[in-house]
Amino acid sequence: MLSLLYQEGPSTKGIFRRSGSAKTFKELKEKLDSGTEVDLAHESIFVTASLFKDFLRNIPGSILSSQLCDKWVSVLEQGNNEEKIKSIQRLLEQLPRANVVLLRYIFGVLHGIEMRSEENQMNAFNLAICIAPSLLWPPVSSTPDIEGEFIKKISSLVQFLIENCCRIFGDEITSLFGEI
């Protein structure tokens, strides 16, 4: 999924914002969940993006770890960008290695899309709004108002992560998938 999103996302207007066919999404999700091999190359990239966000939402405790939720949300309240980046890197060290590896690929894809935002209309802010709720959620449910505030904060964090991903994850994230 990530490879396809890396290849097609940068040239796709509204990637992660528009959803594909609900029927196709449901059929493909059932196939994937049952272990059936699926060739996503012949499907709409919007369905693939929806499937990927669904995959992220189904990671127990979220990929950024709901246990670290308060720490993630408070990162942007810290001093300058350098201090924020160091805090993020310390939080990443507390995550399971598999989460960090997947995050590097995710932000490699998001960076590639953001680099062509004039073409696809998905700058870091727009990408963050679409993907942030799939990356982190609070450990306990709350009121809609509190949830709305939380989504704003986590979206700002994800925007910062996209804008600074090379400094956070290393410059090699721009070439994890090779050339587009």
Which descriptors apply to this entry?
RhoGAP_dom, mainly alpha, 0% strand, single chain, Phosphatidylinositol 3-kinase, Chain A, phosphoprotein, Rho_GTPase_activation_prot
| Helix/strand/pairing category | mainly alpha
Q: Give the terminus-to-terminus CA distance.
A: 15 Å
Looking at CATH, the homologous superfamily is Rho GTPase activation protein
Tell me how many strands there are. 0
Q: Count of helices?
A: 10
Count of domains: 1
Shape by Cα distribution: globular
Question: Which percent bin holds the helix content?
Answer: 55-70%
CATH fold title: Phosphatidylinositol 3-kinase, Chain A
* Amount of beta strand: under 5%
Rg calculated over all Cα atoms:
16 Å
Largest sheet: none
Average per-residue pLDDT, rounded, comes to 93
CATH class: Mainly Alpha
The CATH architecture comes to Orthogonal Bundle
Low-confidence stretches: none
The arrangement of helices and strands along the chain is HHHHHHHHHH
Short structural summary:
The protein has helices at residues 2-8, 22-34, 45-57, 69-74, 81-93, 97-115, 117-120, 124-135, 144-163, 165-169. With 180 residues, it is mostly helical.
Task: Please outline the helices and strands.
Elements: H1 2-8, H2 22-34, H3 45-57, H4 69-74, H5 81-93, H6 97-115, H7 117-120, H8 124-135, H9 144-163, H10 165-169
Helix pairs in contact: 1-3, 1-6, 2-3, 3-8, 8-9
